[in-house]
Specification:
alpha/beta, Rossmann fold, N-(1-d-carboxylethyl)-l-norvaline Dehydrogenase, domain 2, eight-stranded mixed β-sheet, seven-stranded mixed β-sheet
Length: 503
Amino acid sequence: MTALATSSTVAVVGTGTMGQGIAQVALIAGHRVRLYDTAPGRAGQAAGAIVGRLDRLVEKGRITADERDAARGRLSPATALPELADAALVIEAILEQLPAKQELFTALEDLVAADCLLATNTSSLSVTAVAGRLRHPGRCVGMHFFNPAPLLPLVEVISGFATDETAATTAYDTAAAWGKKPVRCTDTPGFVVNRIARPFYAEALRAYEERVADPATIDAVLREGAGFRMGPFELTDLIGQDVNEAVTHSVWQAFFQDPKFTPSLAQRRLVESGLHGRKAGRGWFDYSEGADRPAARTAEPCPAPGSVVLHAELPGPAAVLYELIEEAGVKVTRDRTPGEPEGFLRLPGGARLALTNGCAATSDVHGKDIRFDLSLDYRAATRIALAASAAVSEADLAEAVGLFQALGKQVSVIEDAPGMIVARTVAMIIDFAVDAAARGVASPGGIDTAMRLGVNYPGGPMEWARRLGARWVWDLLDSMHRQGAGGRYVPSWALRRRADLEE
């Protein structure tokens, strides 16, 4: 264990919300903490705010009054940068501007000891570039905390091109000693979370632009059908549309405008309109007092069919639907006629009901085709999206709606589109994760930990790849790619290799 001793001083430069949160974490861990901000008086104000939060922790029974008093005695604001000279670790949480971070660290290099660790809390800039002007760039490492830092456990520990292994190990072990869950990663655009999470926002925005469904419905399908804590539209409203769009644009530019990371024109227009989300009172949704939240598109009750015919086995997690349908009292007859390329249910009216495979329902050669969206857990899901081909009648669609309603699910009928909503989103996240692991960005276990803890995913994408099967994911993305030009849905070679190894 090479964590910094608690007798070491930790300095935090930048005293906004993130800087205060990081300082509080180090303070509670037992360090002396020195706060600095270029704005006169702001470090003192931040120290007062941190003490106020310590008081509330005492009220909640999280720490004792003696612990609060001891922590308060270890906290001090600095009025000038030289007052940080005795720090063993300096963490910057200033503006997300490369020149500002470079200027700060070059100034600190002339003040602090040779073994002082310099850490950047950047969420999107290159750690290599931040350290680029240092005489000894090996001491610079990324320590990316997530907001609010005292509550969220994840810390991404990023090694730049020149970062010494001892520096990265010390940062990792120190974060662990502070009660955090650190994940090691290389210096890649977006690191782990902001790289792999991009499709969660991007595919929802793309589906909205394609008029597949409205924001409230897309949110509901991903939240109630796939188990995500929040939908992408409500989440970006919470984060701030300007902040989310800036990160997306930064990652896209850093990847040399790779079409997989292309920003959304719809989100750009929202930002240009000043509709930045909750902090502005309005984003995708209206947050003014008394404003009604739009409801998700939900089908009216329909009678369940008395029976269905199961052709072959439903793929992946959809296989459990056989049990759920029988448990709901609907008779299931098996048709074992060979030659069907995929499992599906035949409804009484003749329509085929199948899990989305990346093709639009209307493009299916069978004509009367209804697709249902992916769920990571069909038993737990409370909402399912359906999309029908142009040949499907209202009576056919009502049978499909009634079947899922009999299973206790609300149903959202959306416009026909390749990959629907959940399937395209989850498949892209998996592809990004498998590709990142193959490129050594982070370990497979580290990726799953980062995505569960950093953005509260209902599971890790590497775990999803094992459950769904890389072949199913690759086939879905390949189908989407073949139906639309541009390269957005080209599956990675890492996913292809994984799929080939499954066979």
